[in-house]
Amino acid sequence: MTIMIPAWVDGTLTPVEKLEAHVKGLRHKAISVFVMDGDHLLIQKRAAGKYHTPGLWANTCCTHPEWNESGMDCAQRRLKEELGITGLTLNQRETLEYRAPVGGGMIEHEVVEVFVANAPDVTWDLNPDEVEAVKWVHTDALSADIARNPDQFTAWLRIYMTEHKERIFGDLIRA
Question: Is 74 a catalytic residue?
């Protein structure tokens, strides 16, 4: 199945096949979701069969909206498809942009809508084609682990936690 995502081609937002956007490093839309329990973040280990960054730890959920899909609808859809999570109140926090190689000659150049949900009692039902494991981790411990073991984490999670932590979490993780 070909998935068409919104990407900028010659300055115009255009539907582009997802793999093509990554191979060419095209600037494209994305979403990232951070499910929180106070100052703890639910992170996921990407399934071994993913076409890029398999087996690496990432934020709760991240993907690309399909052409003509809103960021909010995409975030809710992928939480359900990847983790079996439904019914969360998502709050849009930021729109961030980054560009990073993700292996295999592919590049993520994303304009990311960031969503956060406080969900201390959340339950999940992992889709094994998408997610190998999940765990709760304190945001400070995650930052320290990324500094010690960067090769265990996706490029985007490293960027979020080193360059945008305050913008994403800010008042959410203060005592």
Answer: no
Q: Is 62 a catalytic residue?
A: yes
In 3-state terms, the chain is what percent helix, strand and coil (to 5)?
30, 40, 30
Residue 18 belongs to domain with CATH number: 3.90.79.10
Residue 60 forms part of a structural domain: yes
Nearest in space to 165 (alpha carbons), one of 108, 103, 116, 102: 116
| Residue 8, domain member (yes or no) | yes
Among 61, 62, 74, 113, which one carries the catalytic annotation? 62
Tell me the per-residue pLDDT of 132-142, one tens digit each, with 9 for 90 and over. Answer: 999 999 999 99
Given the DSSP bridges, would you call strands 106-118 and 27-37 parallel, antiparallel or unpaired? parallel
Indicate the pTM of the whole model.
Answer: 0.94
Residue 174 lies in a domain: no
Residue of 82, 108, 110, 113 with catalytic role = 110
Q: Which domain holds residue 146?
A: 4-169
